[in-house]
Amino acid sequence: MFIQWSEIFAVGVPRVDAEHRHLVGVVNAFHQLHRSEAGRDKVFPILNLLARYVEVHFQSEERLMEAGHYPHLPGHRREHDELAEQIFALAARYEAGDAEITDQVMEFLKHWLLDHILQLDKQLEPFFRERGVPEEWARDAVVP
Questions:
Q1: pLDDT, tens digit, for every residue of 18-54?
Q2: How many CB atoms lie within 10 A of CB 143?
Q3: CA distance 131 to 14
């Protein structure tokens, strides 16, 4: 397994944690395809799924932060925008045949995901522990 989910990644918001687990699963599936040297016809759909789910997840997180009046939302949103732009650009370059999925790309995805969770998203934990989690996010998300 490329990324092993650990409770160290949990931010204490059930819906966000469920979405993060799903995101880890998508990255792991993408990595498995990469390692199997699957063709572009198999790799692109999972890369596209990853890009689309990143967008959905970031929007979800931002709605949580808005609902909870999280004071660091503007900076967090900028980080989301930059990361989403990188993923979408990779998907577009790959679809056009101008990019390959390499071990370096996979390591970038892994570190991007884990660094984002551990450095930014973990800041949500004490904030929502102190203030309480809005009801909509207190349950696991229904993920595709």
A1: 999 999 999 999 999 989 988 888 889 999 999 999 9
A2: 15
A3: 15
pTM of the model: 0.90
Q: Which has the closest alpha carbon to 17: 49, 55, 50, 64?
A: 64
Query: Which residues lie below 8 Å from residue 43, measured CB to CB, with a gap of 6+?
Result: 30, 33, 34, 94, 101
Q: What are phi and psi of 54, to 5 degrees?
A: -60, -45
Q: Any idea what DSSP says for residue 21?
A: H
CA 117 to chain centre: 8
Q: CA dist 52 to 7, 12, 26, 135, Å?
A: 25, 24, 11, 25
Query: Taking Cα atoms as reference points, which of 51, 31, 28 lies closest to residue 105?
Result: 31
SS3 content of the chain, % helix, strand, coil (to 5): 75, 0, 25
> If you count them, how many residues does the chain have?
144
DSSP E strands in the chain: the ranges are none
| pLDDT tens string 82-108 | 999 999 999 999 999 998 889 998 999
Measured CA angle at 114 (ends 77, 95), to 5 deg: 75
